[in-house]
Amino acid sequence: MEIILVPGLWLDGSSWKQVVPGLEAAGHSARPLTLPGMESKDVDRSRVTLRDHVDAVTREIDACHPDEKVVLVGHSAGCAIAHAAVDARPDRVARAVYVGGFPTGDGDALAAGFPAENGEVPLPAWSEFDAEDLADMDEAARAAFRERSVPSPERVTRDPQRLVDERRYDVPVTAVATEYTTGMLRDWIAEGAGPVREFTHIRDVDFVDLPTGHWPQLTRPDDLVRVILAAVES
């Protein structure tokens, strides 16, 4: 199975480096993506749009074997990008796995709340995150994260999501709860909370708890591998 790995804000494809070996050892082909504008801290990302990121994922789907479906794994804001790629290629995706994030609905922004500077969104100070987000990340891990982080394009966080094909709701989803619990997520869905409203339309959703901070590919990579493999096998 081709497994496409879509990072969240401030991260490139190397953020999956502790996950890829486990997926490949199980016989799968892992494709960690570095999205446009995230190649280095020095590139000009001021004109990179949300559509550019979605198109990059769609191209990766198209590059896979045409007779085989793929699994899309998104992390954080990458869940919304993956969801838009599901919308663009619903017949090519066997399952989507959303890790620590939600499938943003049509017309909504992915992460408009983060401050932007000169067309990009830098990694905020750690004090801006909740303690639950930072679970299992000691000072050394936080320093390494900040060193490797790349500012995300502002328009990726602000542009409205555009979804057009309701067949996206036929693609099964595994929702992986990290700094929150699946019980909390189910409550938000039942309450009709805006950020999770897409879940109310998806016909097949599995809920999985992976208690850690917001970045399980860094803090609990082996457990994340097991979750992804279970999703693939299902």
Automatic annotation (TrEMBL):
GO terms for molecular function: hydrolase activity. Keywords: Hydrolase. Residues 3-226 form the AB hydrolase-1 domain. InterPro entries: AB_hydrolase_1, AB_hydrolase_fold, Sec-Metab_Biosynth_Hydrolase. This is Alpha/beta hydrolase. It comes from Nocardioides jiangsuensis.
